[in-house]
Amino acid sequence: MDLLTFSPEVAAALRDGAPVVALESTIITHGMPWPQNVETARAVEAKVRAHGAVPATIAVMGGRIHVGLTEAELDRLGQARDVAKLSRADLAACLATGGVGATTVAATMICARLAGIGVFATGGIGGVHRGAETSFDISADLPELAQTAVTVVAAGAKAILDLPKTLEYLETAGVPVIAYGQDAFPAFWSRDSGLRAPLRMDRADEIAAAARLRATLGLPGGQLVANPIPAEAEIAREVITPVIEAALAEAAAKGIAAKAVTPFLLQRIFEMTEGRSLAANIALVLNNARLGAAIAGAMARAA
Ligand code: PSU
Asked: Might you give the EC number(s) for this enzyme (predicted)?
């Protein structure tokens, strides 16, 4: 596939069948403020390495999909203001026009699959937004999970969403939602959403085996691994819920819609919690990087 530019480290790992974990870039450009965004991206890469895998951060630049970014590219992306937020709908257009684009969960899954990377770690997936029964706002991350064979490790779906509807959507679409090490579906900043996850697994090798068996069965699509935030970093559900509600009310009053909703809410929640939500977000991404590396290791051993 001539659209892909691999960093030398990622190219070597893929050639040797070594474990690789894909990482997204929208969390850098639209999910966290500078400079914590770049610091976190580096720490996540280091965490993947510390657990025996090679990190492959993905972004679009100069008409190419970059799989594995240099330090300078990460820095530039983290400070740029006019980066497009790319999902399935806009990936090809950004490549065609030579723009700079950050990949969401959906676009990162597409690129990871093209690159031959089976697992991808992020913070939280997009999902069904509250009020979707009138706004129709459903993240393109959900249909992507139904059609692209990549295992996505996230701390559940972001608690700004309608989590029961998000789980209903995933069930209808046939996406395995696997809570890691607990029965509850985690809610990003909190370990427990109050909802039970449809599936539970306690071991990385079983998650890797399930991905393989889906392929054997001829089932398209990926898996969502919902990894709860570490207990010491979580924000209790009673604490974060009123903050989320206030941020949602502001977004509605300001008429924020479509792609702008999630970045707006994350930024306002960061301000309202005086940075606590960001600290939690960083902790959960690092935790997902660690599990992603373990799953990538298990996938590589089984291959
Ligand atoms: N995880 C985070 N922060 C983020 C995201 C994930 O901790 O900002 C990004 C991902 O790129 C995901 C996107 O695809 O949020 C969801 O956006 P939307 O709800 O507009 O689909």
From this structure: 4.2.1.70
To the question of pTM greater than 0.90 for the whole model, the response is yes
Q: Is 24 a catalytic residue?
A: yes
Catalytic residue among 45, 144, 158, 259: 158
- Asked if 158 is an active-site residue, the reply is yes
Q: Is the domain 4-302 a CATH 3.40.1790.10 member? A: yes
Q: ipTM of the predicted structure?
A: 0.94
- Euclidean distance between CA atoms 174 and 177, whole angstroms: 9
221-250: pLDDT as tens digits? 999 999 999 999 999 999 999 999 999 999
Q: How far is CA 229 from CA 62, 226, 280, in A?
A: 36, 9, 8
Mutate to test the pocket of ligand 1, among 23, 24, 25, 26 (most ligand atoms within 8 A of CB): 26
Q: What is the DSSP letter of 81?
A: S
Q: Which tens digit of pLDDT belongs to each residue from 15-56? A: 999 999 999 999 999 999 999 999 999 999 999 999 999 999
288 contacts 123 by C-beta, under 8 angstroms: yes
Q: Are 35 and 42 in contact (CB under 8 A)?
A: no
